[in-house]
Amino acid sequence: METRSFLTLEDASREDLREVLDLARAFAEGRFVDSLENKTVCLAFFEASTRTAVSFELAARRSGAHVISLSEKGSAIAKGESLIDTVVTLDRLGVDAIVLRHQAAGAAALASRHTSAPVINAGDGCGQHPTQALLDLYALSDAMGGFEGLQGRRVAVVGDVLHSRVARSVIPGFLQAGMEVALVAPLTLLPPDAESLGLPVLSSVDEALEWGADVLYMLRLQRERMAGALIPSVAEYARFYGVSRRHLESGALAMHPGPVNRGVEISGDVVLDASSLIPDQVAAGVCVRSAVLALSTGAAHRVAA
Ligand code: NCD
């Protein structure tokens, strides 16, 4: 049975994206069940998570898998065991898939070289977060009349691009979906190679709306990953890069991967507003991650056959 890891969205094709989204739809509509019967999925979360961890667990359990959860506290990692030794141990114990969240960029790719089980990157430091981007594309496709409806639409990715693994996954995802992407951030929160991406860089949410943004995709200000003072103050940041109700009057949709700093990236009263896709993004997590688990373990082919 063919298995495959999900490590990055950087080299995903349009067809790859469509394959996951179509299968996710089949899961959402109940056309695909128990695909992981007799499989064991290990959820190895060595960094904090609510949405990603819970939705992976629901996805695995609803697909009929046995689920093992591992965190830093309570595993041998707390005794100094290396990531590689941990992965080799899981491999020898016979797990069928490893869902890994880790604070170091590249951790999932490294892990995948030490196990024959597929590794699904659930977020690696400032690296990648492919399933977040996939569920974002799912929720946005729903709001825009399907995947084809994304073609030519404009999305502004707003905020802390520098520290964001989500940005590194959603930007290639949006581009493959045929969307136009602009970055909206202070220069101190942009990666040094931002220019090489060839994307317009704008300096406020108002400018993004003038550019014609259909979607404002906010990123969390990741203060735990900031080494120094990259913004003058949170209030100053919120003034130029925070989204409030008036920004959504044009019909633009608001997205955010969560967790949200209310009043910083987005004002509290619009998080659950009709123009906010944030609850839909969360809801899409289960069917999209069910699809990713089925594809990575080869179960999708088995059930479809
Ligand atoms: C993100 C993450 O942890 O990468 N959240 C998520 O998975 N929904 C974004 C963040 O932490 O800002």
Give me some keywords for this one.
binds N-carbamoyl-L-aspartate; alpha/beta; Rossmann fold; globular; four-stranded parallel beta sheet; about 300 residues; five-stranded parallel beta sheet
Account of the 3D structure:
With 305 residues, the protein is α/β, with parallel strands linked by helices. The protein folds into two domains: 14-128 and 285-297, Rossmann fold; 130-282, Rossmann fold. It has ten helices and nine strands. It has helices at residues 14-28, 51-62, 83-93, 107-112, 130-143, 165-176, 205-211, 234-241, 278-297, 299-304, and strands at 40-45, 66-71, 97-102, 119-124, 154-158, 180-184, 201-202, 215-218, 253-255. The strands form two sheets. Strands 7-6-5-8-9 form a five-stranded parallel sheet. A four-stranded parallel sheet has the order 2-1-3-4. Helix 8 links the parallel strand 8 and strand 9. The radius of gyration is 19 Å and the shape is globular. It starts with 13 loop residues before the first helix and ends with a helix. Bound molecules: N-carbamoyl-L-aspartate (NCD). N-carbamoyl-L-aspartate (NCD) binds at residues 51-52, 123, 129, 132, 165-166, 220, 222, 257-258.
